[in-house]
Amino acid sequence: MRLNKYLSGAAILSLISSCTYYIPLDNVNEPSKLVLYCYPGNGENTVVRLSRSLPVGSKNVPEFSAERAEVHFFLNGEEQPLQWTDDSLPGIPAQSFYRPGRLNDKDLVRITAAADEMKAVTSSTVVPAPFLADSIRMEREPSDPGKLLFRIHFTDRQDTDNYYAVRVECRQTNYLNGDYKEWIYAINFDLDKEPLLNTNSGLDDILMREENYYQDLYFWDDSQIRGKSYTLRLRAYYLPDSEDTYDTPEGEVHTIYKYQYRISLYSLSEEFYKYLKSMNDQHNNELGKTELAPIRATYTNVTNGIGLVGGCRFTQTGWLDNLPAE
Fold it and tell me: Model-level pTM?
């Protein structure tokens, strides 16, 4: 199955750009901190985004200008020039720094930044090797034709600690008397028969805790499969394509419903994995939402600041046609 190997970081940014950031209550009155985000590893450019945190109850805070910040980008120990854009460019959000050019496996990226009266921040990460699946298959579940089964077969690299993620999207296309509408949404999977992703325990059942994956991005480490080949099995409800014509008082109606699927594979640095895990723990902390348990702070690897510098490689299939109903 053909994969698009290099896609812009915008696809990654869109997944976590709406995240809520939790900090310990002891720190809410601390001075403003620099917020740094960078996900080296994908696309023609590496984007660096800067902002500032605001203490609770802060008033008359000076406007922050990321462009005036002093930002340094080091690749394998050598400083690289950064460019700035006020306007959005393909794969680059507006008001961002970026370093042109691709990165390679095992490249070490270190970023330092300073602005205004805030403490200077620093962070680093290593670009992981891409998640290359040996095969990807979509089929009807043999024991339950009402389920759609995605089989992703891959071989883990034994010489490194590896972190993976997958997300499957559905494109639903509706035609109503020639009018066309389209929706794209992520699929929520049944994980009962997938031990690599089903982390629920008996205690979770007692506490009525349900493990969900934030924004349907399913991630795991290789602690259970180190150096082995493995087939990930993801199950969802099967939605058949359909076409129908029927009469109404207003006249004849002709409808067509079609479904297509796209699989995205992510290879993550350890820092990116820890960040996603902390976001997921917060998302699933039902007791914390009712103030019956503490909410842990969001993971950060930015010294003196907030945010994430995490390596990520991203590959994606094209849109796969639906399977026939029979």
Answer: 0.86
